[in-house]
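Translate sequence into structure tokens.
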Amino acid sequence: MNPLPATPDALVLRTDFSDNTAWREVCIAISAPSPGDGFLANVSFVEDRSFEGATVSDLVSAAGAGGQYRSFLFVVDGATIRETDHPVLVIDLADQPGRSFRVIPSEMWGVENNLSLANMDFDEFADAVDAAGIFRGFDGGV
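Result follows.
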């Protein structure tokens, strides 16, 4: 498996290649500005088949092998593709490597912006998930 690519933005890594239409829908949803304020997730989308089917453990290892520091990673996996609300996996690569939660695409801007700027900690989002383990915003999301 390759190391994670070096980019200045947070990564959205595709590990499931079963449905190109769903992948495009997820990318569009992630790229949409937040309602009202127009905030955006600053991300780069990565489609590299060497990551197909990668586990959380594989991705934590790949992050360490890249030589570029990242504190978190967004992953579009099979669950993201299959589930109606396309919850994206978020993996902690810094404090508790491998700890994860899911986030709906419309709330990714808040996760990305706050984790990238260190305004908030991974735990604050991970501890605010619903019963299904999905972060839908601090007010419950849309």
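Note: The beta strands are 10-14, 43-47, 72-76, 88-92, 100-103, 134-135.
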